[in-house]
Every structure is written in C-alpha cells, then in structure tokens.
Amino acid sequence: MKLKTKDLLTLAELTPNEFIGLIDDSIKLKKEFKKDGNKPILKNKILTMIFQKPSTRTRVSFEVAMYQLGGHTVNLSSNDMQLSRGESVEDTAKTLSRYSNCIMARVYDHKLLETLAENASIPVINGLSDSFHPCQILADFMTIKEKKKKLKGIKIAWIGDGNNVCNSMIYGAALSGVNMSIATPKGFEPDKTVIKEAKKTTNIELTTDPFTASKNADVVVADTFSSIHNLDKKRLQKFLPKYQVNDKLMKSAKKDAIFLHCLPAKREQEVTSSVIDGPQSVVWDEAENRLHTQKALLVALIHA
Ligand code: CP
Ligand code: NVA
C-alpha cells in the first residue's frame, strides 16, 4: 500500500482506501508471518524511537516488527538525548534524518510531533501523544475486521474518557464507515474539531449515559480514566462507578459484542476482571495486532 502522506500523526492524513488497505496488508502480513515468517522487506532499514513517556506494547511491537522485517531500531529516552538540555526539536529532526529511515516518537505535546515531522526528511510516526494514538487504532480496527469480518456499519460504544485513543478512533470510524456512540462525563468529551470532521462521513453520537452508548453495540471499548498526562488525583471520582465496563453493561450490548482495551488496564476501575478476562474480551489479539499493523505501516512509509 502506497501512502500519499510522509508521516502518520493522527490518521486524518489517510484516505479511506489507504486506511482499509493498511488493515488488509496487516492481515496478510500476519498470515505470512504465522506460515513462513515475513520476508526481510526492510533489510538494513533503521527506525529511531524516542520516548518521553513509558511504554510496553508500542516499544516492543515496533522493535519486534523491525527485527522480523530485517531492519533495526535505535531506542532513545528523551531524557538521554540533547533534547533534554535544550537542543531544538528542529535540529534533532534534521540530525536523526541523516542516520535513520523513520522516526517513531511518543510525546506529551502533539505539536512536538508536528515540528519533528516538518523538519525531518524521513517519515515520522506518532507512537502516542496527549491528543492522538493512531497506531492503536490501526490495531483495533484490524481486530474488529478479523472478528466481525467487516467494518462498515459496525457500531462502537466508547465508554469513559474522551481521550487521545478516542480521538484517533473517531478518525478511524470516519475512514471506514463505522458508527460510534461515546459516553463520557460532562467535560470529558473528545476533541470538538475531530468530531465535527468525522460527522461529515459517519454517525458520532455523544452521550453521558453508558447504556445509551452500548445499546446495539458490536464493540465496547474502555481505556484508563487517567492517561499518562493526567495528573489530577481526583479525576477517578468523575468516572466511578458510572463509566465502568462491567457484566451488566456488556449484557446491554449485542449478544456477540466484543470488548477492546488498548492496555494497560486498571482492573476494577474502567473495566472489571470478569469482562477483560471474559469470553467477549479480545484484548490479547488486539495487543498482538499492534505488531502486524505497525509492520504494514512501516513498510508503507519506509519501503514504498
Ligand atoms: N497500548 C499502548 O500503547 O500500550 P503501551 O503504553 O504499553 O505502549
Ligand atoms: N490513554 C492512555 C493510553 C495508553 C496506551 C494514555 O495516554 O495513557
């Protein structure tokens, strides 16, 4: 899949065909990997990874993806870089462009990624910012396609905080004709501009009632009530107990609804153990699919 965009920062850079194409490529790469292993299509290519925030899945899945495609990674904590002593993002982008073929960065301020992308001559991938998490949504929609055999017409219920993952999921929904109903407490809605943009092509419903959102849902999604960048300790009180995904809420969705969570999860907060460890949960496939979707993305950005 050839992409028009150099970078992937939000998902909004993609056309619907590109988004669906990446998911289909991911499914092919997964099958190929399980059968004979992947071909070394990124042989000798280097991915530089910068982390301002902790990560388990994103770091490991990118590292393993590059390795299994014949490439390598350089893994940097921003604290260990001259960035922490005031070197500009612009100069960092220009320098890293001379050593590697792609940059993946996990940051606080989304603007940092934009500056990185503007100044790097190589592709820049958002590995999570305070505002967006596009790589997660590629994996989530791949998982939905695998389980439900389609995307168009699916209803997703998002329960909890209208956060970075939710913003990217709204873009994913708009790109694939998926409908979303989003239940958040007042004041925790997703980004207004993202909603306005998505409403041009799909149905995005906002509610404060989790049961309104879960009605007829094919997919129920939870994420932490407190993202890495949220420091307010009183935050949880705004969400609990109303926005917890538990057995009662799952029962109000379709009988064959699946449960997604990007992980890491706080059991008994945003989701009960009975749901995340239960028969409707597909969170481990979802986590695995980070590997396959990122392979497809890396190939599309670096190799094409
Ligand atoms: N879902 C996700 O991005 O996980 P990590 O924070 O562990 O990378
Ligand atoms: N919304 C969460 C996602 C973690 C993968 C956060 O930003 O911390």
Structure description:
There is one protein chain. This protein is of the alpha/beta class. About 40% of the residues lie in helices and about 15% in strands. It is built from eleven helices and nine strands. The strands form two sheets. It has a five-stranded parallel sheet with strand order 7-6-5-8-9. A four-stranded parallel sheet has the order 2-1-3-4, sandwiched between helices. The N and C termini lie close together (about 5 Å). The mean pLDDT is about 95.
Short description:
The protein has helices spanning 16-35, 57-68, 89-99, 110-119, 134-148, 164-176, 192-198, 210-214, 247-251, 273-276, 283-303, and strands spanning 46-51, 72-77, 102-106, 124-126, 155-159, 179-183, 204-207, 219-222, 258-261.
What's the topology here?
Blueprint: H1 16-35, E1 46-51, H2 57-68, E2 72-77, H3 89-99, E3 102-106, H4 110-119, E4 124-126, H5 134-148, E5 155-159, H6 164-176, E6 179-183, H7 192-198, E7 204-207, H8 210-214, E8 219-222, H9 247-251, E9 258-261, H10 273-276, H11 283-303
Helix pairs in contact: 1-5, 1-6, 1-11, 2-11, 3-4, 5-6, 5-11, 6-7
Bound molecules: phosphoric acid mono(formamide)ester and norvaline.
Which features characterize this protein?
304 residues; alpha/beta; Rossmann fold; 2 domains; five-stranded parallel sheet; 40% helix; binds phosphoric acid mono(formamide)ester; binds norvaline
Give the low-confidence spans: none
How far apart are the termini? 7 Å
Number of strands: 9
CATH superfamily caption of the largest domain:
Aspartate/ornithine carbamoyltransferase
CATH class membership of the largest domain: Alpha Beta
